[in-house]
Design a protein that fits this description.
Number of domains: 2
Helix content: 40-55%
Shape: elongated
CATH architecture of the largest domain: 3-Layer(aba) Sandwich
GO molecular function: phosphorelay response regulator activity; transcription cis-regulatory region binding
Structural class: alpha/beta
Strand order of the largest sheet: 2-1-3-4-5
Order of helices and strands: EHEHEHEHEHEEEEHHHEEE
Number of strands: 12
Strand content: 15-25%
Protein name: Response regulator transcription factor
Radius of gyration: 18 Å
InterPro entries: CheY-like_superfamily (IPR011006), OmpR/PhoB-type_DNA-bd (IPR001867), Sig_transdc_resp-reg_C-effctor (IPR016032), Sig_transdc_resp-reg_receiver (IPR001789), WalR-like (IPR039420), WH-like_DNA-bd_sf (IPR036388)
Oligomer: single chain
CATH topology of the largest domain: Rossmann fold
GO biological process, one term: regulation of DNA-templated transcription
Organism: Pigmentiphaga aceris
Distance between the termini: 23 Å
Number of helices: 8
Length: 224
């Protein structure tokens, strides 16, 4: 999952970026409003964590421009502005959630997980293909009922494929889930992680579409 962190305070930004990456999210960090707008126009994100008091362009202006493009990417405003009027303005501008600094990191992570689940229209399903069961909400994977441990990068490749059974994803699209803009991308990274997933979960789960990318079969279905 890829998150855009929009924060001009260097200490807060570094701390939040490290926490998010420790949770296996790919993170891009924009330090002003203009940079945030550029990121949002040129890349696809699963969620935006947005400060309001930004240089060059206020966070509300960034949010308003995003929603004007009919972009429904989930947005969490994280700001020191704690007046009721500020919260109303942020939510009315299109934010999905609003947290006030200083916030509890564990609560923030829980809010992020909830918003992402809501945005893709699933509560807490289990995806099943044959003897493989995958629970995205808790990142649990099992084969024949036995738990299987995946690396952070393997999970980053598997989750977007399982979330859209039958939809082909290119190598470039999967690379976006693996890395932020400031991280180096190995040319064969996706292939390496898919090889690892096939070794752990079986060769039939992730299929090649020659010259296009990768897909999990439509027979992977969510079960309550």
């Amino acid at each position: 999952m890829r998150i855009l962190l929009v924060e001009d305070d260097a200490m807060i930004g570094e701390a939040v970026k490290d926490v998010l990456r420790s949770e296996h999210y790919a993170v891009d960090w924009a330090r002003d409003g203009d940079a945030a707008d550029t990121h949002l126009r040129t890349a696809t994100y699963d969620l935006v964590l947005l400060d309001l008091g930004l240089p060059r362009r206020d966070g509300l202006a960034v949010l308003s421009a995003l929603r004007a493009r009919a972009d429904r990417t989930p947005v969490v405003i994280a700001t020191a502005r704690d007046a009721v009027a500020d919260r109303i303005a942020g939510l009315d501008a299109g934010a999905d959630d609003y947290v006030v600094k200083p916030y509890d990191v564990n609560e923030l992570l829980a809010r992020i997980r909830a918003l992402v689940r809501r945005s893709v229209g699933r509560a807490e399903p289990v995806y099943v293909l044959g003897n493989v069961a995958i629970k995205p909400a808790t990142r649990e994977v099992s084969v024949d009922g036995m738990a299987v441990t995946l690396s952070a990068r393997e999970w980053a490749v598997l989750e977007p494929l399982v979330a859209r059974p039958g939809a082909v994803m290119s190598r470039a699209q999967l690379e976006e889930k693996l890395y932020g803009w400031d991280e180096e991308v190995n040319s064969n990274a996706v292939e390496v992680y898919i090889h690892g997933l096939r070794r752990k979960l079986g060769a039939g789960l992730i299929q090649n579409v020659r010259g296009v990318g990768y897909v999990v079969p439509k027979s992977v279905v969510p079960k309550s």
